[in-house]
Amino acid sequence: MPTRGVVYVHSCPPAVCPHVEWAIARVLSTPVRLEWTPQPADPTTLRAECSWSGRVGTGTELAAALRQWPMTRFEVTEEPSPGVDGERIMHVPGRGVFRATMSANGDLLLPEDRVRALMAQAAGAEALVHGLDRLLGTAWDAELEPYRQAGEGAPVVWLTQAG
Questions:
Q1: Is residue 12 a contact partner of residue 18, using CB atoms and an 8 Å limit?
Q2: Would you say 67 and 91 are in contact if contact means Cβ atoms under 8 Å apart?
Q3: Dist CA 159 CA 163 (whole Å)
Q4: In whole angstroms, what is the distance from residue 48 CA to residue 100 CA?
Q5: Nearby residues of 12 by Cβ (< 8 Å), 6 or more positions away
Q6: Interval 69-116: pLDDT, tens
Q7: Domain coordinates in residue numbering, the chain
Q8: What pLDDT is attached to residue 57?
């Protein structure tokens, strides 16, 4: 069953941009030319985004391909499809990857077993809040937010997975 999503490359050194395009092209099995624009939140980098369509699991493959360049900031989303939850994967240099299940409206979903484990282990309200922040990827969101805002109104390229 096909699905779709978005790749947001929030910041990428100019020399790495062609490699990012090649990585996305390799996953989607189709040529990729992104429209790179300056990233105001970090003037030494560029940003781009593209919507994609392909088979379920493509979002994970795209994130794995982009992780090869640890200096990039990116997010990959995959929309839910029949019988399969959506997901959001975020990467921040020095922090690594955060991956979470995503609802149809874009909210992160916390698995019941992880919430129950947190409640059983948290020694007080402060620990519970810290644990929930960790489960929600709050640190990744906080670091990416200035880069997201700088990309509002930026051009988007549509890509469809071949074959």
A1: no
A2: yes
A3: 13
A4: 22
A5: 20, 36, 45, 46, 47, 48, 69, 71, 72, 73, 74
A6: 999 999 999 999 888 889 999 999 999 999 999 888 888 888 899 899
A7: 2-112+146-160
A8: 94
